[in-house]
Amino acid sequence: MRVALFVTCLVDLMRPRIGFAALRLLRAAGCEVAVPRTQTCCGQPGYNAGDRAGALALARKVLAEFESFDYVVAPSGSCAGMIRTHYPDLFRDAPPQERERARAFCARTRELTEFLVNVVKPGSVPGTFAGTATYHDSCSGLRELGIKAEPRALLGLVPGLKLVEMAEPESCCGFGGLFSVKFGDIATHIAERKCAGVAASGANVLVLGDLGCMLHLEGRLRRRGDTATRVLHVAEVLAGPGAG
Q1: E strands, the chain, where?
Q2: 136 and 64 both lie in a single domain
Q3: How distant is the alpha carbon of residue 45 from its chain centre?
Q4: Alpha-carbon distance 147 to 145, whole Å?
Q5: 129 and 235: one domain?
Q6: What is the pLDDT of residue 178?
Q7: Residue 26 and residue 93 in one domain
Q8: 82 near 111, Cβ under 8 Å?
Q9: Is residue 217 situated within a structural domain?
């Protein structure tokens, strides 16, 4: 199975170790993995800002770079959701042949935990973890792709890890891309509620599937004086130390 890893902008620029962890997981699952070197952005920021022309140009670039693979996998519900849910809208006025190419491409695009659980179905994962974790359901993965059980099923395979649920795990963290820039006070209030839920859970690590949420909540935890709670992408926990 030939799989292309869509690294995502934030992972590439802010936390490359997440990309390496995803790569390790895919290889451990028996996939032949490629990482197209010319990849950049999926086009979501422009699309959300109303720049359809710019977003469509990036979508066509992504299509050309990734459509030859059996699957495209992203360690991000946000980027996978952009491709699966919003590319059909971007390509709606394209020529029929291009629309069909885009449709087929969208159908082969998966978020990382969704791909692992529903396509390759591993019986184990490389990582081990000594501690108690709680999981935050990021909005795009949950609401656009329906990802809820998959990351929890995989975390259940990690030796030594105890998973506890925080209050309101499905509530937004307040990031929302441009939302946190335009409405900083509201975003901070939402993040504060989420961080209070993390603290009340008793977990010593917060696990997430999207780096935007991860950076937003980690920043808020530190600002409220919590320097002990670790904030990790689910791929890092599943892949284990040394993945990067």
Answers
A1: 2-5, 32-34, 71-74, 109-111, 131-135, 161-163, 205-208, 230-233
A2: no
A3: 15
A4: 6
A5: yes
A6: 74
A7: yes
A8: no
A9: yes
Below-50 pLDDT ranges, the chain: 244
pLDDT at residue number 91: 98
Domain boundary among 104, 119, 134: 119
Torsion sign across C-alpha atoms 207, 241, 14, 148: negative
Q: Could you say which of 119, 139, 171 is where a domain stops?
A: 119
Q: Are residues 220 and 132 in the same domain?
A: yes
Report how far apart, in Å, the C-alpha atoms of 103 and of each of 2, 6, 91 are: 19, 18, 9
CB contact burial 207-220 (16+ within 10 A = b; e otherwise): bbbbbbbbbbbbeb
**Sign of the CA dihedral with 235 first, then 237, 239, and 244 last:** positive
Are 13 and 114 part of one and the same domain?
yes
pLDDT of 182: 83
CB atoms within 10 A of CB 186: 13
Residue-level pLDDT at 50: 93
Structural domain that includes position 30: 2-119
CA atoms within 13 A on the CB side of 128: 3
Lay out the sheet containing 205-208: strands in order across.
161-163, 131-135, 205-208, 230-233
Give the β-pairing of 161-163 and 109-111: unpaired
CATH code assigned at 163: 3.40.50.11810
